[in-house]
């Protein structure tokens, strides 16, 4: 299962999974994770997928660059 971290609220981590946001205990999320990271469930914890996070960040940057081109 793959998701994107939306935000942290207290002891909760809000993760978008299949287009829906779900709340998970912060204890179930890798301590290095931050908002915007792509994470994967390994059966016991949400861990950051660094490669997919970098790809996603680049895609968003490219879209923003296109938006502001004139």
Automatic annotation (TrEMBL):
Write down the superkingdom of origin. Bacteria
What InterPro entries would the database entry show? Answer: DUF3006
Q: What is this protein called?
A: DUF3006 domain-containing protein
Q: Which organism is it from?
A: Fontibacillus panacisegetis
């Amino acid at each position: 299962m793959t998701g994107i971290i939306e935000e942290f609220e207290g002891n909760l981590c809000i993760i978008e999974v299949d287009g829906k946001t779900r709340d998970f205990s912060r204890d179930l999320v890798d301590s290095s994770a931050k908002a915007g990271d792509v994470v994967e469930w390994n059966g016991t914890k949400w861990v950051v997928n660094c490669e997919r996070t970098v790809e996603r960040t680049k895609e968003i940057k490219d879209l923003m660059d296109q938006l502001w081109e004139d």
